[in-house]
Amino acid sequence: MRLKGAQVLLECLKREGVETIFGFPGGAVIDIYHELPGYPFQHYLVRHEQGAVHAADGYARASGRVGVVLATSGPGATNTITGIATAYMDSTPLVVFTGQVPTQLIGNDAFQEVDMVGISRPCTKHNYLVKELENLPKVIKEAFYLASSGRPGPVVVDLPKDVMNAEIEFYYPKHVRTRSYNPHTVPNSKQIKKAVEYIRQAKQPLIFGGGGVIASGAHEELTNLARQLRLPVTTSMMGLGAFPGNDPLWLGMLGMHGTYTANMAVNYSDLLISVGVRFDDRVTGKLDTFAPNAHIIHIDIDPTSIRKNVAVDVPIVSDCRLALQALLQELEEKVDPEQLSGQYQPWREKLGEWSRTHPLTYKRDSETVKPQMVVEKLDELTQGDAIITTEVGQNQMWAAQHYRFLHPRSWISSGGLGTMGYGFPAAIGAQVAFPEKLVIDVAGDGSIQMNIQELATAVCYKLPIKVIILNNTYLGMVRQWQDLFYNKNYCSTCLEYSPDFVKLAQAYGAEGYKVTRPDELDDVLRQALFSPNTAVVEVAVAREENVYPMVPAGAPLNEMLLV
Amino acid sequence: MRHTLSVWVEDEPGVLSRVAGLFSGRGFNIESLNVAPTLERGVSLMTIVTEGEGQIIEQIVKQLRKLVTVIKVVDMNHSDCVEREMVLIKVNAQDSYRAEILRIVDIFRCKVIDVSHAEMTLEATGDSGKISALLSLLQRFGIKEVARTGAVAMRRSLRQEA
Question: Do B17 and A121 touch (CB under 8 A)?
């Protein structure tokens, strides 16, 4: 079968099982778009390439599949960078195809030329410039394998225009052969035995799960481990949904805006069973005082995560799921769960006491809508059965704190990079992956304006996403820092002028709602959530509400500012 | 502590920038870096001399291994190895200096590879200590140019017990 480069690309994508592409055309990829109608892909035309990458990212996080993006050269390519960096930090599998000027023009400062491989190198797992069409099938095979195996991540494939127009006899390799890249997925049995020994000795153990639990599909194993030994569980923000938020063993999220109980638990724990985490600074607070009394078991697929920030007693380089399976099996042979569970009983009582005395809370108000109340209402109305995406800042933290996540992949938020403008396009991707599910973007008035143009995409493809804008007319999280640490110098954080979000939604063809009083909230949210259309709900919330608890940056976890 | 890392990489465009970018992006030091092809087609050997505490070196090695184009990383400090560096030195060599310079050339077993009325170019090989000693001895004549290759290293063969 003799094919043109553009056809080779699309044929390869078909063989990889790709169904969905998020993209935006341009001169350098016009040949690919020319062939696109002949292939069985659903292509979503976004309004900005950043939106395409976030949408593919949301699609990948919701479904576990590889997200695929197609963008043109130059500005199209640079517009994808924020999305790629977001995916890289949160280990999302993406393959991003960018156009490139013809090979003979590369390096000549040609029209819409940019060194995409150079620019994307530090924020991709790997990247390729395909200079010969013969290499393209192998590169695509590798790109999908790299993106989805080991610690997942984004891969960029840069495609010069002349390569897309060349012709070859098509051949798609069945296997990937790389002599250098072979992720280690199976746990070392000695380390598993050592981990079990630590679990037997522990009096105050704590499970700390992260995004790796979700990426490897280890939530069931994690839940089994916790329930069998009645081990308390906390997760990083990226790990929300890895353990049911309505289980009595659940302590809430830890870290900068974690619950009092979770942070105190880390502080007093004598064994931290860390699964699929990387000990980010937002989780650890001051490093020298992190988990000062604990031995640490650290399971992660990425060897660089281990001993990067904290010293570890039992390092286990492995797929989280396989490691937890091995751990469960070893525990079954070696321990009596009843006895161990009893051994931990005083610890659980202590944690229960903390939860009772310091629950996650806020001051309620009958006149103004509290942002936390909006999230609680969403939780009540959806019963954990929605996909929640967020923007970044206070909206994100309130959503993380006050929604009870019951299922993995129901929480989609930019953790590592903290990308404002992520949530709405990510919701588009999640909704594309699950057309029947309720997808809600919890947004702020600042973040939503960073990718609001994608309302056109959502409406155009009839995606019934709900955008809940918690409007406090501030860039709230920065204002909160200014309030607490910068002498209330609210420099450039007040968004004095914002558009009328209701009219804006309507102008795009979506439904627009506004809530100003607490007693309107229930009705309006019901109306929006159960509407078959894209809907934007602007909620005027208490303007200077802060997110608590808060561990100031660089402080120990047990030094929290409380409500 | 100073570490010498041997890094086997796929010989393809951009591999150097991946390695160099890793060091600069993560704030690691490169004291010297040397790259050349190996006997195996498509594989190059980089020798990187770097400086750092144990945990930093561990991160550097792990991060290098994580690069898809890196095939193998060996920290040469973990084994008994030989390490050499070559240097070219252009030194002032007026008539009155020549005899002394040639004596140093002899002691250090270097070679004179170019000579003119006023200058000599020397070639020397050795570990970094020897090169530094040579440079410091030649300093008083006036060194005009220096080009060093950076270290290359190899593990010593196992010796049989006598």
Answer: yes
